[in-house]
Amino acid sequence: MYYKVSVIMPALNEENNISTAIENVVKSFMQLDILGEIVVINDGSTDRTRTIVESLIGKYPFIQLICHDKPKGIGASCWEGIWKSKGEMVTWLPGDAENDAFEILRYLPLMEHVDIVIPFIYNRNVRSWKRRMLSKFYKGIINLSFGMLLNYMNGTVLYRKSVLQNITLKSSGFFYQTELLIKCIKSGYLYAEVPCALSPRLSGKSKALTFKSLRKIIRGYLTTMAFVYIFDTKNKHIVPDSATASRHKQL
């Protein structure tokens, strides 16, 4: 089955949110007249997350469910979901229903001109002052370290799937989003930044702000620094079916 876009949805113990998250994506597909699929990765949940998703598959046959016996991490889950998806474009929305799929999917027409659409949050007050300060600090370090000027790195980025085929993802945790962006941008792929809104989390707490996640982020940052500035010295190859390759031919 061909799909224009695949929405990858990692979920760890999101029984209170997963149904809302899935229904939101389905509604966005209908509003935008998109032929899409949803790939849910149940990353070792011990609650009813799997049962709820399985009940929705009968209603929406374009849902694909991948289950892990034990948690592998959000990065590893999304990466697996990407390569088991069937869409030409891929993006991800966490199963906590914090993101409105419409906010990123409405920019799908931009993919005629670029290979990456990067969202930035314009209603930042939806998050706490502490979380906003951490985001600014994180953004400053990444931009300074890798010579970029991005407004936000941890959003629901939309990729042309083919541009990821030459990327090796090392981060299994939350740094995977930043790692992918850095490696794709450094490879020369065209991108656009767009404004998106964020919704308040319905239930539970974010798993991003833990000491375990912080350690993984630091490790991912150092590994990516080494890759970009020491090991990745070969010429970059732009895949021929990308918008970037098409633009180069026009020039």
Q: What does this protein structure show overall?
A:
The chain is an alpha/beta fold. The chain is 39% helix and 18% strand. The chain contains 8 helices and 7 strands. The chain has a 7-stranded mixed sheet with strand order 3-2-1-4-6-5-7, with helices on both faces. Helix 2 (49-57) links the parallel strand 2 and strand 3 (63-68). Helix 6 runs parallel beside helix 7. The longest helix is centred in the last third of the chain and has 21 residues, at 211-231. It starts with a strand and ends with a helix. The mean pLDDT is 91.
Average pLDDT number:
91
Report how far the terminal alpha carbons are from each other: 35 Å
- The shape is globular
**What is the H/E order?**
EHEHEHEHEHEHEHH
Which sheet architecture does the biggest sheet show?
A: 7 strands, mixed
Q: Show unreliable segments.
A: none
Strands of the widest sheet, in order across it, are 3-2-1-4-6-5-7
Structural class: alpha/beta
Number of helices: 8
Based on DSSP secondary structure assignment, what is the total number of beta strands? 7
Relative strand content: 15-25%
